[in-house]
Fold:
Amino acid sequence: MFFTLIWTTIVYDPIAHWVWGTGGWLRELGALDFAGGLVVHISAGLSALAAALIIGKRLGYKSDIMAPHNVPMTIVGGILLWFGWFGFNAEARFLRKALPRKVPFIVTNTSAAAGAIHMR
Structure:
């Protein structure tokens, strides 16, 4: 909980101000944020880059075969993400006005299924 509080204060809050705050430089440039996705992806991407630079390469990188660590947990994560997309996409405010509720739901399911089949 302490890490989350510190990370949110140092990383997420300034980025949120850039995008949503009055006088935020990205807002002034005309950035459009859909449901907070821009802030989430900027903060996650920069945090992942910082972690990768600090941690460095994996031991045995390019010299050992590195199979996936835990395939069942990867599948569970994919299922949870797929389920989360339904709430996010099918309930999107701008889609509710423009399309019947079932269209984003069907597109979300079909695209995720196509991605899962492609990965096989």
Q: What stands out?
A: Helices lie at 2-20, 25-28, 37-55, 71-90, 93-98, 102-119. The chain has a mean pLDDT of 84. The radius of gyration is 19 Å. The chain has six helices and no strands.
